[in-house]
Amino acid sequence: MLDRRQILVGVAVLMGGSLLPSTVKALHGSEDIKSTNPATLSDRQLKAMTVMADIIIPETETAGASGAGVPAFIGMALNNWMLRDEREAFLRAFDDFLASAPDFLNTSPSEQARLVGEIDRQLHGLPKEFRFYRQFKELVLVGYYTSEVGGTEELEYDPVPGGYTVIKVTSETRTWST
Amino acid sequence: MTKETSKSMAADFDVIVIGSGMSGGWVAKEMCERGYKTAVLDRGAPLEHGAGYENESKGPWEMPGRGRVNREEAARDYQINSKCYAFNEFTQKHFLKDSDHPYKVSPDKQFDWIRSARVGGKSLLWHRHSYRFSEMDFRANKTDGYGCDWPIGYDDLKDWYSYVERFAGISGSSENLPQLPDSVFQKPFDMNPVEIDAKAAVEKAYPGRKIIIGRAAHLTEPTDEQLELGRGPCQARNECQRGCSWGGYFSSLSATLPAATRTGNLTLIPNAMVQEVVYDPATKRASGVRMTDMITGDKVFISARVVFVCASTLGTTQILMNSKSVAFPRGIGNTGNSLGHYLMDHISGAGAQAVVDGYEDIYYSGRRPTSLYVPRFRNVTEPTDSFLRGYGMQGEATRMNWSAASGRTGIGKDFKNSIQKPGPWVFRLQGFGEMLPRYENHVSLSPAETDKWGMPILNISCEYSDNELKMKKDMQQTAIEMFRAAGYTQITPFFTDSKPGIVIHEMGTARMGHSAEDSYLNGRNQCHNVENLFVTDGASMASSACQNPSLTFMALSARAAAFADEQLKAGAL
Questions:
Q1: B244-291, pLDDT tens digit by residue?
Q2: Residue B12's pLDDT is what?
Q3: Which CATH number is B490's domain given?
Q4: Strand B38-41 relative to strand B12-18: parallel, antiparallel, unpaired?
Q5: What does pLDDT average to over chain B?
Q6: Which residues of chain A make contact with B406, given a CB cutoff of 8 A?
Q7: In whole angstroms, what is the distance from residue B82 CA to residue B495 CA?
Q8: How many domains does chain B have?
Q9: Could you tell me if the ipTM is greater than 0.90?
């Protein structure tokens, strides 16, 4: 959907911006581009991310985040979309969160949802221990809506539209995923 | 690396064309159709139209990186090309590895040189907006004194525009605007209701400003000629740079090269890095080209009666400057002071966006591959004292989708359901301005450094002047004005710190003009000093206008090829 001219200025401006590092950003800094130390998520990190991802995008008539493979996507994105220092910073921030909520994985689903909701309400002014969350939420959404489930079942996908036409919105209308 | 041979492949051709992109493809077609044995040499790897488009129509879930190139790889191998709007995991292999083809810039003067890695060149990767230049554009240099007077005017090119438009296929609407002459059109893409209402409101408030549908090289009513070449109507996927096996948009691969191939006169040589046009002092003509086979490293000389250099603006000038001889120690045919100078791009990166209330019951199907266009009004219908020349604008109204949702609060089922519904309408407008031709903006060959094939690398020294920066500020202001006129209240202006090159409309450095002293080419794209040497790509431009320039490159190429044919038939070449 995005046209070159939109991308030139960045779709992010309107809504406050993507926090995932862009390809372009890598080019200006002095980041280490030779890193060969891809991260692997610890069991605890993976479990906590899975729980939180499913709270953000739960199963409805369509699969939720974990059903759409979002946890594996996050592993891929950490290794492929980030440079080592960015990846390490993100995982450090996530570990800080886990340290601030040591019982997160053992507590009840409703308590887990309550905590995620509380963090989410602070999205535009996250305290230090929750600073991982903005980037995490974006990873969850990108991972979900670029998955086959998210892209074709939850949203609408048309690989070959055949033309551009104006249509009426009905109760059945879903957003195009691409 | 290697011996120099004159192998059988290199026997005689009537015509050599260096580069198979927008310009080279046209020269190849025109010369092949006129019966000339034509060799097209391209640095790019071969790419088969259709079968070679390996990521066409794939969803992001079918790509290992979900559409993004591995970041370390991008930073290492595609340091510049990864800045291009079209660079992604689907299109990666169509872009040049910067790491293999280095260039340098002057301190504090960034230039983002975006380059193709495939046969077909940037015609595969372009944005397809297609606009004629007007008489005002061809007279601009003479009027304000920047750059040299164009040796041609609109009337010289008018019929050639029509000729290339009929073959390429341009969708658009006739508007009868003197600053943006109408093309031969196929039917335009639709504007949506938000855009139609904005057009009415803006044109009422500002009678000198028009909002029209973008004119784009997409087939909406393919002709018999286009269908015969295997092309079909645009499918509104807007994933063009991956390649389009429908041939829905114009590229060398979909259109000009197939037309050249079916004559039986075309020899297409990929992986061929031409490093030099060879000058023969006895005949005072170009005798052929010296190239390196990028796979084997072999150096080969190929001879021809006529040489067309269409290697992309800076690629062309790099080759010309490297074509040194006793007669022309500063590059073949170069006796003046213009070769390498007067480099231009356009300036962009400023405008505004607005959230549009209402229209919630309206959506669209299909990904329209073009946008709106606001033809130049500055110093046309609305004069200004603050800068010379002007700009056009592109933009469109779309509904927001999931990609904006991560900036919003919300979790769970309600959040998920809200993303399932189309988001608010957002309207964007962004300017594209003319860059003055200035001597200081120039390129030169590195005296010491070469790439791994032995070609001296290019040093680029280019920056925007005050005139362009003032124009850029004005783009932002007029976009805001138009959104206010449309009744929008949530307006966010933008102004990014863009550098030349990134608009990918680089032009100049081997310009047309009246004399060898201050230009490289005459009014036929023919080198003043070497009569069988032609340059028809962006390097030949004496000014940049503000329109997307590819259509003009096509028209100049077809016109120069017809001229070369006449000269050959008359025995003059």
A1: 999 999 999 999 999 999 999 999 999 999 999 999 999 999 999 999
A2: 81
A3: 3.50.50.60
A4: parallel
A5: 96
A6: 15, 18-19, 134, 137-138, 141-142
A7: 21
A8: 1
A9: yes
Q: Which residue from A99, A13, A134, A40 is spatially nearest to B350, judged by alpha carbons? A: A13
Place of tokens 């197939």: B258
- In angstroms, the separation between the Cα of residue B416 and the nearest Cα of chain A is 6
Contact B396 A3 (CB under 8 A): yes
The beta-carbon contacts of A17-22 under 8 Å, at least 24 apart in sequence, are A17/B407, A18/A138, A18/B406, A19/A134, A19/A135, A19/A138, A19/B406, A20/A77, A20/A81, A20/A82, A20/A135, A20/A138, A20/A139, A20/A142, A21/A81, A21/A82, A21/A83, A21/A86, A21/B71
Helices assigned H by DSSP within A101-158: 109-121, 133-145, 148
Cβ atoms within 10 Å, residue A42: 12
Nearest chain B CA: its distance from A25 CA (Å)? 9
**Helix/strand/coil (H, E, C) string of A4-29?**
HHHHHHCHHHCCCCCCCCCCHHHHCC
Does the distance separating the beta carbons of B421 and A175 come in below 8 Å?
yes
Hey, how many other C-beta atoms are within 10 angstroms of the C-beta on B430? 27
What is the rounded CA–CA span in Å between residue B182 and residue B165?
11
Cβ A98 vs Cβ A48: under 8 Å? yes
The end-to-end CA distance of chain B, in Å, is 35
For B461, the token pair is 């020294």
CA distances from B481 to A23, B53, B190, B203, B523 (A): 33, 43, 24, 12, 41
Residue pLDDT, tens place only, B111-152: 999 999 999 999 999 999 999 999 999 999 999 999 999 999
Containing domain of residue B526, as a range? Answer: 4-569
C-beta neighbour count of A37 within 10 angstroms? 10
What's the whole-number mean pLDDT along residues B65-73?
96
Residue A40, pLDDT score: 77
Q: What is the pTM of this model?
A: 0.94
Of B71, B410, B420, the CB nearest to A26: B71
Specify the DSSP class assigned to residue B187: P
Report the mean per-residue pLDDT for chain A. 84
